């Protein structure tokens, strides 16, 4: 009998749950997006998040390195071959100080266990769906805006994005442009793009066509006047919220004042909230 005497080739050390980086784009000195390969077995619902990260430095005492993992919304839709993420860069952030240096061909760690409440399953059917975001809170909506179900289930989608500066809106603005050019989504969106998707970007610390916090613009009624629509009504309007903590708290109060109630996967209602992830 033939015996294979060859010793197995030593394996190059690879990360647990490693995925390869396929694309990186820096939008501002504080923001970047990247794409990685998608594990063949990974199924998720548009709007969910996963834990991703990198190996930390080797601990001098133990001689071992531990992964540094953070929750990140998947910015790509459930049908995409790859996974996209949109991240802030925090100079002394344990993960993002390293993650911001990734290059095409590098590996990141991705735990394939998607979870989250910014999903269609967690809200009751309605006519108009609002996505309220600040900063990197746009990420889950980058997924949901490319999800066909969004347009099948709702007559209209309003996406609001509030950032400090104009440059921070660019990822979202580009995404809306890409959707306009997408042939498959175009069929669902129909001939009147701006009626089906209303994009409402605002800035708070740099001059732009629409300035102010979205919460203030809602209280004053300016948003509804600008869009030419009725104020939020619990019979027809549904909301998904993702932003910084203070924003989430404020907009929750606002939505409750319109009569909307917070839902969950196990108990769908009129709106859902999740915190935008920061390092
Ligand atoms: P502002 O510049 O007035 O603080 P950050 O980069 O700090 O996460 O903020 C992102 C955006 O969210 C900023 O435009 C910021 O406005 C806005 N923001 C912060 N807190 C609130 C809040 N409570 N309600 C509405 N918008 C907020």
UniProtKB/TrEMBL annotation:
Alphabetical keyword list: FAD, Flavoprotein, NADP, Oxidoreductase
GO biological process: cellular response to oxidative stress; heme catabolic process
Residues spanning the signal sequence: none
Residues spanning the membrane: none
GO molecular function: ferredoxin-NADP+ reductase activity
Listed cofactors: FAD
Enzyme class at the top of the EC tree: oxidoreductase
Similarity comment text for this entry: Belongs to the ferredoxin--NADP reductase type 1 family.
Organism the protein comes from: Pseudooceanicola algae
This protein's name: ferredoxin--NADP(+) reductase
Reactions listed under catalytic activity: 2 reduced [2Fe-2S]-[ferredoxin] + NADP(+) + H(+) = 2 oxidized [2Fe-2S]-[ferredoxin] + NADPH
UniProt-listed PANTHER family: FLAVODOXIN_FERREDOXIN--NADP REDUCTASE, OXIDOREDUCTASE FAD/NAD(P)-BINDING DOMAIN PROTEIN
InterPro entries hit by this protein: Cbr1-like_FAD-bd_dom (IPR008333), FAD-bd_FR_type (IPR017927), FNR_bac (IPR033892), FNR_nucleotide-bd (IPR039261), FNR_type-1 (IPR051930), Riboflavin_synthase-like_b-brl (IPR017938)
